[in-house]
Amino acid sequence: MAGTNNIKYCLILILFKLSFSVDAQVESVKLHVSPNYFWLESKVQESISIDPQEVKFENGDKGIDIGYGITYKLMSRLALTTELNFSNRLRKQYDPFGTQQTVKYVGIHQKSYFKIGKNLKPYIGVGANYLILKRSSADIDVNSTKNFYSSYDISTIVGLAFQISFFEVFVDFHYGINPQRTAFASTPDVRVNSKSRLLRLGLSYVIEDKVEEEKSKNKKRKSKKRRR
Questions:
Q1: Dist. CA 28–CA 20, nearest whole Å
Q2: What is the pLDDT of residues 166-177, one digit of tens each?
Q3: Which helix (H) or strand (E) holds 24?
Q4: Closest listed residue to residue 30, CA positions, set 81, 92, 77
Q5: What is the DSSP string of 95-163?
Q6: Reported confidence tier of residue 146, pLDDT bands at 50, 70, 90
Q7: What is the CA radius of gyration of the chain?
Q8: Where does residue 43 rank: exposed (0-12), middle (13-18), buried (19+ CB within 10 A)?
Q9: Alpha carbons 87 and 32: distance in angstroms, whole number
Q10: Which residues fall within 8 angstroms of residue 217, CB to CB, at 6 or more apart?
Q11: CB of 99 within 8 A of CB of 85?
Q12: 36, 65, 34, 41: which is closest to 196 by C-alpha?
């Protein structure tokens, strides 16, 4: 089992490295940190009844994301960012089995930015996250493990960033498209198609900005020409 997990981690790192091998101009390298709010939207279907009922459960709690990304310039106003992201998500459960759940993911996020003016950058993207830890008092009570949850969380991303100098404030929403939990361990007749929802408000620090460097070089060249 440990060998399988190591292979999956290696694949993630290889994919991340390959995604940075695109033949495009590197615009910036940045680190980000963001508090998040995570919840699951579920429709619980009781298949044992003659007339199945669907009840929607929404629950959530605050966690944190941290990550590293590289932005490539494709056109004057269009850029592509690839990020390696670690997400620590907490969830309050409103059910009789437990009250809190912790899930940790490592993932790759691919985003397309469109620049409006000098500072505003709306973006869309997709995220592929791999589950590395799941812990819950509810699962301990019903003697289940993370095997009852999907190992992957695939989500679409929509967001907005505002950059001032070497800092970038951003807000985005991650809409999970694949079910996370598909069954209860103790009651297999009850199916739960829970899909993840994640809201983030964060700050990025641009540790290397090729655009600013190029502007600085151009200014120095112009200054030298004037002196001549």
A1: 12
A2: 899 999 999 999
A3: none
A4: 81
A5: ETTEEEEEEEEEEEEEEEEE-BTTTEEEEEEEEEEEEEEEEEHHHHHTT--GGGB-SEEEEEEEEEEEE
A6: very low
A7: 22
A8: middle
A9: 12
A10: none
A11: no
A12: 41
